[in-house]
Structure formats: C-alpha cells, structure tokens
Design brief:
globular; 0% strand
Length: 129
C-alpha cells in the first residue's frame, strides 16, 4: 500500500499571495501616488489571515464531523477556526476608526503573527510538495 503524499494547502498559499500583494500595493502606492495604506495595513493582514485560517479549517467538514464524533482532526480544525475568529476580531478592533489600544490586543496580534510564521514554516518546508 502506497503512502499518500501530503500536499501544501493551495488555500494557504493563496492567503500568503494576497498578503504579499497587499504589501506590494502599499509600497507602490506610497512611492508612486504618495498615498499610504499603512494605517489600515494591520487590519487588512489580520482580516486576510483570519479568513485564511477559517477557510483552511474547513468549517463545513468541521461541523459535519462534530455532529458525529469529535476527533483529533476536528479539534485541530476547531482550534484553527478559533484563531481565525480572533484574527478577524483583532482586525476590526485595529481599524483606525475604532483604534482600540490595549495590551491584550497586542498580545493577540503577536500570537497570530507567531502562529502564522509556524504555519508558513510547516507548509513550506515540513510538508511534502
């Protein structure tokens, strides 16, 4: 019996591409149009990462699996979706119009950044392509 190769999540790669495009668009808009989206940058990347975590967690499969039995895979998906929800909440609270400034929000942003780095390392170098 052949061992099935794991593959890098195309959804996760798409999220990374979107974040790269946002960063590139910020650089281009600052240098060519003298317009900066840096005030919104934290909110934008947190929102994209949050949506990415929720999409990668496969909420429909998670819901269907949770109705039957909770397993290690469903617990992992649930954790990923909770991190995504935290990222979206942090994105809303980081908007310049709301501008909540609190140490717990900074901690959540740092935690999401750290987890994102771990995901990038895992998806890029650990999983088989």
């Amino acid at each position: 019996m052949e061992k099935e190769k794991r593959r890098v999540s195309t959804k996760f790669v798409g999220v990374l591409a979107i974040i790269s495009i946002i960063g590139f668009a910020n650089i281009i808009s600052e240098s060519m149009a003298n317009f900066s989206i840096s005030l919104y940058f934290d909110s934008i990347w947190l929102f994209v990462i949050g949506i990415g975590f929720i999409v990668v967690s496969k909420p429909k499969n998670l819901y269907e699996g949770a109705k039957k039995q909770i397993s290690d895979a469903s617990f992992s998906g649930l954790t990923t979706s909770i991190i995504g929800a935290l990222a979206i909440t942090a994105a809303v609270l980081t908007l310049p119009q709301i501008n909540v400034s609190h140490t717990s929000l900074d901690t959540i942003k740092a935690m999401i950044s750290f987890i994102s780095i771990i995901f990038i390392i895992f998806q890029t170098w650990v999983m088989e392509h």
